């Protein structure tokens, strides 16, 4: 199909002249799979269409937000209505309160919500709040978790940072990086050691409770409970970054699934229904430290933007119906069964991880429990697999260090097509191993 992507190749050349690396976010570049990125014309339901007219079944979902698929009518209707009223006012609207009420309703640990414009802003602000509230400077971050590109959180990060093999980033000062202590995911002893050494200097721990940005990895039994306990004991805040998992794995995110109440939560992606958005939220006494209620300053010209709020609210209203999640689970189960059968039948060296509608096929035979395990995967084999899938019209995240997303728009036939494509791709690769 590659010669059928001539327009994308040309578009990328043009973009590279005026946009660094030709993309506005590194994860969009196909560098890890040694291809040019595919330029998109439109999305429809479970499908993406590129500018050459090729159709792809999509498992990227715009990196998570499009849980209902592309252009769900309920969302489009609200956006059209808002468009006529105005796209930004820089003044309060009732819809901001309505979406905050819904989030408070879905999340037991949340009394108040502050809207921002991206997941990055949400985690940056949550960290500032944790520091301001506790009067402490140090943050514990888990290796391979990605929380956006805020300075404090770019140390040993996952997603695009891991894909490019970068440890930190030039431009982040040593002093800033020094305040971030990185420990491996799923390692209780490492966290205990840090608390022993720094104790009351720790403002909080931030983590993806189920990771997506080094591929999908679930917490081991007792791990989140342990983090809850040790933070409480040491007066540090537990921050769940649910930018990816929030409203995706359950209405109440990973914290509902694991029945853990963090002190602060960060959101993004789904709560904007495909529009730029982020939010941080938590208990009243902590959130009331945020300006103008409290001293921790954080602001935004476009925060709570009415278009983003309409798209988010319409999406969250659809997710009020818990059946959406049981249907997603059925689809995900079917895909998991199909992939695992393929792996078994072909005796292929691969390992499948899934939680709800997020999954990753790791190119290793070992169990994948942390960042190091992902780094040990066969990245060349992943790249070859990615290309085989693209050739069969299946659009996957172009990196081993990412989660795949299942949307409500995928049909039984779509899933069967994907399982068959997976079989064909693995069979071809197996013959070359
Ligand atoms: C868990 C998590 N936190 C934060 C972010 C940053 O969000 P944004 O890209 O909207 O800045 C992401 C983005 O992928 C994410 O997955």
DSSP helical segment count:
15
Q: What is the total domain count?
A: 2
CATH class of the largest domain: Alpha Beta
Bound molecules: pyridoxal-5'-phosphate
Question: Given the C-alpha coordinates, what overall shape results?
Answer: globular
The H/E string reads HEEEHHEHEHHEHEHEHEEHHHEEHHEEH
Major sheet size, sense and barrel closure: 7 strands, mixed
Give the name of the CATH architecture of the largest domain. 3-Layer(aba) Sandwich
How many distinct beta strands? 14
**Relevant CATH superfamily of the largest domain:** Type I PLP-dependent aspartate aminotransferase-like (Major domain)
Percent helix: 40-55%
- What is the percentage of strand-forming residues? 5-15%
